[in-house]
Predict the 3D structure of the following.
Amino acid sequence: MKRLYLIFSIVLCLSALVFFSVMSFFSSKQNTGNQPPVQIEGISVFYPKAEEVISSPLGVVGVVNGGGWIGFEGQVGTVKLEDEDGNELASGILKAKGEWMQEVINFETTLSFVSQKEQNGKLIFYNENPSGEEERNKTFVLPIKLPKMETMQVSVFFGKYGEDECENVSEIKRIVQKTQTPARSALEELLIGPYIKENTEYFTNINSGVKIQSLIIENGVAKVDFSKELDENVAGSCRVLGIREQIEKTLKQFATVQSVVISIDGEVDEILQP
């Protein structure tokens, strides 16, 4: 009896060992998605992953660390999203997070795009090259998957160069992914700022890195709470007026909004002071 018990115990232990070895193998396979995708010297893109199906707005996050990939005046380069036919769907500036005068620089940007069908696509990263010398140009291509999207049109409001009045903002139409929360989608487009092709004509008073923490629309009042970046280093009554006007005009395009209450981390009264 003791011998049978011993044999049974050994078999049980071996079975458990095999089970946990198999589970560990599959777990390691699944965790490979947490690793950076294929990269080249000087740049790593943490999100999105290679061959991942992306959605809009798309947050792009990564790091540069030399090899021709450098920071200059708060940015480390640009990125372009193309469909499988080579059509440009979106582009953005890779903004440095924190200090840019160092070798290792984290970056981020947000791209808004529309895809009419399921298809292959790619993100093309271009380094910052203040020298202008062609031999210093670097690129990195990240393959992704694009979904088929239903779309809608929203308006965003930006300052326009040459306009004198602080609160004089101009409307730009944007085609975005259809959603049940169009007001939030419009605000997200506003926070992205002018596209690269619009930079020479339009500007935003709103800091980069601002996040929408909540948006509630009740009885004609839109209450929107932003992250602390909205108020960082904001000085002057003109800029404050511009920020408020951009946000309010963007929300008041919707019939459900007659007035807007802006807050930062829940604070209303002490924010956005000249």
In short: The first helix runs from residue 2 to 31. Confidence is low (pLDDT under 50) at residues 4-8, 10-33. The domain at 151-264 is CATH 3.30.300 (GMP Synthetase; Chain A, domain 3).
